[in-house]
Amino acid sequence: MTHSKFRLGVVFTHPTQHHGPLWRKLSEQPELSIRVLYLSNENQTTGDSLLGNNAQAWDVDLTSGYDYEYLKDLSGKVPTQRRKNVISPGLINQLTRDNFDGIFMQSFVNYSYRLTALLCKLRGIPLIMQNDATIMSDMRYSRSRRIVMSFMYPWMLNLADYWLSCGDHNEIHLRHYGVPDEKIIRGCHPVDGDRFVQTIAQHPEEVQRIRKELSWDENTILYAFCAKYIERKNPFEFIEAIAKAHHKDPRVRGIMLGGGTLEHAINERLATMNGEVLNVGFVNQSKLPLYYGAVDVFVCPSWIDPHPLVVSEAMASGCAPILSDRCGNWGYSDTVRHRYNGLVYPCGNVDALAAAMLEMTDSETRRMYQERSKEVFSEQDLYAEVRAFLEVAKRIQQKQQPASKRTTKPLSGAVST
Hints:
Elements: E1 6-12, H1 19-27, E2 32-38, E3 67-70, H2 90-94, E4 102-105, H3 111-123, E5 127-129, H4 135-138, H5 143-157, E6 162-165, H6 168-176, E7 184-186, H7 193-202, H8 204-214, E8 221-228, H9 235-248, E9 252-259, H10 263-271, E10 277-281, H11 288-294, E11 297-300, H12 309-316, E12 320-324, E13 343-345, H13 350-359, H14 363-378, H15 382-400
Parallel strand pairs: 1-2, 1-4, 2-3, 4-5, 5-6, 6-7, 8-9, 8-11, 9-10, 11-12, 12-13
């Protein structure tokens, strides 16, 4: 039986600010249909627990414009938060070849994802996957676990028929564990850059108000940290580097956006300073582009961060990036390209981070990196990920329907905007 559209099923943990726009854009493609099966409604009713007591549910639309359903767990209820041990029995009836031509999921981290992989293999449904793993992020694990991974991952990762890679280090990770090149299609982690650009363009007075509020005077150079206040995001390295850079150039000032378990300790440290760093706290999605638009440089000092999407958000908004080398989104053809559109420094070296900050005080250097960052992001925006999905759908269609018997036109790969 043939179908006029490639029927893509998505099994996903919860609605997110990054993937909601992707599902919406995929649903607009004329030769593709999509149905998203969510395992919880996190972010719709409550905020991210790691953001602390001030976290709120996201205030942007994550679910309109595409077909979706919240699946119930074994208790008969829709979970309000992601859980590793969640099992959604509805997958058994939904994931069939009568319903879908391919299934997309991110990882094997929870039991419902593992059930999804099992059903795909038993029922002959092509499985498409994408995650942001890197060899660097694997180093957080114990030696014994990495030994087990060296045996398990080649088998596990090859359960997927296709992988959408999201960057240079991610592709290295896939190849390291034996995923062949013919299974890898270059994509990216989706960021709705249009929303950031449009929000900034529509509210220039608000951007200027925020900048004035955060600055000492018109000469202030603002450096932003935006993340959960947790250990692996390394917020204190940002604070100490700002202090060092400010000592040499008083125009330097840092702002912190977020929240989490380290917030009390951060506030205690900031109380000993003279305003070199401001803790703004939690900023919801609708206002976040305005803060990106108000600052000059974005800093991501994480010591474990496979592919932090805040960097792409900031670049789309016109910020020049500084990135720790422990983040997974730098490389020759990745998000941050050292000394082309930003700077990469050795994580743990506060002096090196301070030096990078001081290098960004030069207005011409900053302007060059800001402009190039917009160009780089345009190669890795939402539409690039849509093209990757269309390419994998076309390959599946061609593989399932030999040219001599094909009765439907294969997907063109052209993106409807």
